[in-house]
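1st attempt posting a full record on here, be nice pls
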Amino acid sequence: MAVGEGAKVDALQPFPVKEQLPGVHFCVSSSPPWPEAILLGFQHYLVMLGTTVMISTIIVPLMGGGNVEKAEVVNTLLFVAGINTLLQTWFGTRLPVVIGGSYAFIIPAISVALSSKYSQYIKPHQRFKESMRALQGALIIGSFLPMVIGFFGFWRIFARFLSPLAAIPLVTLTGLGLYAHGFPQLANCIEVGLPALILVVLLSQYVPFLMKSKVSIFDRFAVLFAVAIVWAYAEILTAAGAYDNRPAKTQISCRTDRSGLISGASWIKVPYPFQWGRPTFNAGNAFAMMAASFVAVVESTGVYIAASRYGSATPVPPSVLSRGIGWQGVGILLDGIFGTGNGSTASVENAGLLGLTQVGSRRVIQISAGFMLFFSVLGKFGAVVASIPLPIVAALYCVLFAYVFQ
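the predicted structure (as tokens):
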């Protein structure tokens, strides 16, 4: 009788609770060995660096800046992104998310850069500084919106309605909404962009199954392998003179020596608050930045939900989402204080990299923040990595954005 009762009790026991979801090798609170964690952190840094260079390449020339100004803006963006990523992983959602530049702020930034009031400045550098000061003021005012709706709990009210079914369209649109920065940018130099795309897909999806190895090397470091191989291939094409007689747009996209970042970057320079001068404030610019801040808030919410899944964390409570949005507002405030020319958001492509590597460790993201701070201060070294042709980075995005809405 006792044996039968024991068997009956065992049969009614529920399935054991799993600490990690299927398909996740390292969760938020766990971490791979230090050598592997450092390589994964550098991989996250490499992915967010592409967005940083893209944003600066679009905005800085319209503001009147040259290679020196572009290198300084890239380093400032990296420096502030490193600080914001650490703040988000320490005090915000505490999820493995990278906080970097946002495409949502590009349109307001372009409207400021092309404003007729700054065309009166004859010297390009003076025009750049005046435009940047206006962007700083707009970002400072625009940062109050996410801080208010985050820290005062208004976003928590909205997040209560985000059931798993309701969150699916939000996460899907977060991933699909940025595809315009993937394939079109890849097509600017198809001879290096397409090989990068094919290599990432082969290394991450096919090679592990063909090798049948228990050690995840090629799929976990597919981005590093693909970038290294195709970057070397692009160097060979450049040295062989394959683009010598091509149009200027093609040379800028394909050549490895036309970014201008290495020559424009300083050896050592620490970005500091108000380095471009005292911010100027305009009501129209401020309202435009507030609208962009709201777009970034919605985008980040989708990224937080996706990162919690890939980090094998519990579903994000509304209070944690609201706190994360508040700290994102602090990040936008720091963007305005330091003068990045762009606001902050949770990086969609880095959330996709969590799914690709199956490593959702918070420590890995904090290591990537350390790379951001290190290379932003040592400008020449960071500029070497930042000179990777943008079509190679765009090829990575074509794969990583898909993981977000997978």
